[in-house]
Structures are given as C-alpha cells and as structure tokens.
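Usage

Read records sequentially. Each one opens with the input sequence:
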Amino acid sequence: MNAKTIFFIGVILSASGFVSPPIALLGGIAFGFSFVHPYSLDSKNLSHFLLQAAVVALGFGMNLHEVVHAGRSGFLYTAISISVAMVFGWMLGRLLKVSSKASFLITVGTAICGGSAIAAIAPITKPGEDEMAMSLGTVFILNSVALLLFPAIGVALHMSQTQFGLWSALAIHDTSSVVGAAAKYGAQALQIGTTVKLARALWIVPVAALTALATKSEARVKLPWFILLFCIAAVANTYLPIGTRVYPMLSHLGRIGLTVVLFLIGSGLSKETVKRVGVRPFLQGVFLWAIVATASLVAIRAGWITL
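and closes with the structure output:
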C-alpha cells in the first residue's frame, strides 16, 4: 500500500471510536517516520480546525457551574505558571545560547498552549524558517511524549481525577494532548483539564499584545473565539434541556474528533523534524518543560494548588 492509502486508513481508524487518543498519536508518529506525508499542509490546516471544533463539541458534555468554578481558579494558577515559565525560559535560552526568537517561541509554546501560541506569536516576532521549525518541532515532540507519559505517572502516584486534570492542564503543551491525556484518566479529569487548559490558552491574547507592543509590530492579535463557543455549548448543556438527547452525541463526536486530531498531529512528526530541531533548542524545551511539570506536580500534591 502507498502512503496515501495508509494515511486514510489511519484517519478512518482514528475516527472509528475504537482507537484511544494515545494509540492514534502513536499511529500518526509511526506514519510520519515511515512515509513522506502526502498531504502535509492540508493535514495541518485540518488538525487546527478540527481541534477547535472538537473542543466546542466537548463543551456539550460540560456543566457550566463546574466550568466557571474550574476556569476562575485555573485563570489564577495559569497566570502564575505562565509567569514562572516565561522567566525560566528566558534564562535557559540565554544559558544555552539559543537564538532569541526561537527561544521566545519555545518559551511561549511551553508556557501557554504549544503550537497554537507559537502560531499566534510568529507573525509578530517574524522568525526565520529554521527558527520556526525548531520551535514547533521541540514543542510537538515533547507534547507527544506528555500524552503518553502523564497518565502512567498519574496512576503510579495515585493522583485523584481533580489533581490529574489540573496537572495536565498546567504542564502539557497543546490542548489536544491535555484533553487526550485527561480523557484517558477519567471524566472528571477531562472536564477540569479542558476548562483549566482553555483558561491557560486565553493568555495568548495579552502575551501577544504585549509582544506586539514591545516589538512595535502592527500584526493583528487573533482572539481564540472557539473558547467562547465552548462556553456557549456548556450553557446549552446546563440550561437548555431541549437538546438532552443530542448533547451526549455531540460530546462523543468531540472525543472522536480529538482522536483524529492526534493522529494528524503525529503524522506531521518525521525524521526531518527531529533533525531540524537542533540540540540546544531541544534542551531548552526539555529543561523548561521539566521545570513546569515538576513544579506544578509538587504544588498540586502539596495542596498549594486546588479547586
């Protein structure tokens, strides 16, 4: 079979509902390392749209009161987490002598929401092609590792659903992997992880605005409108019983869509991606992620971060 056929088989299996998010991601990575992607650009565009649509659909399975509670607490925790990550990211970039633009993109991607944050900041900082590739490659590789590693750590440490949801939201880069890891851990972890992660993603707006101000850039700062739609879906699920039969189906479709997203993201990783990252940017990403993940885990286990 050729690459196109195998790619479509992977997408179909991921959308079947019988494949878990981690398996879909592993299948995508296996494809990316084995074949030249026949639809590289289309796959990236589709994964971006499908991720947002899946998050909105997941909102139909959420209770608004719990979303507001988790989001309100999560906004403060994410503010602290992002501030700490930005400081340590800057220090590590200087220490490892990573180019300033690549270092900033890796830092923002780790601090806020992975590739989405990098995509939002890139038009403002205008990095070179190699700097962009290094930043995205570093974040995507570590993001994939997190999805596979975090649930195992959570089980080993006997973390509660609430603890794991918080930890995954604060320490995993991309929304897709946060939701994938939390969904594997449990329904409550999924709700908390998704909500707190979206609160973290909202920080794209002020960080992008401050970056544009500091660099005197005239690039437009894009608002993450899908987060508002997620809240509207939660409102419908909580207050509009007329759709009671439909909401669970939409939420289920959201999970399936997310699984497809993870396959698409995995298929975008390749040997060339790994080669282009470079040692120093990758080390910056690894060290920064280790700091964020460890600090947030310790804080949650000690009871300093709670909902």
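Summary fields computed downstream for this record:
- The two ends are 50 Å apart (CA to CA).
- The first helix runs from residue 3 to 14.
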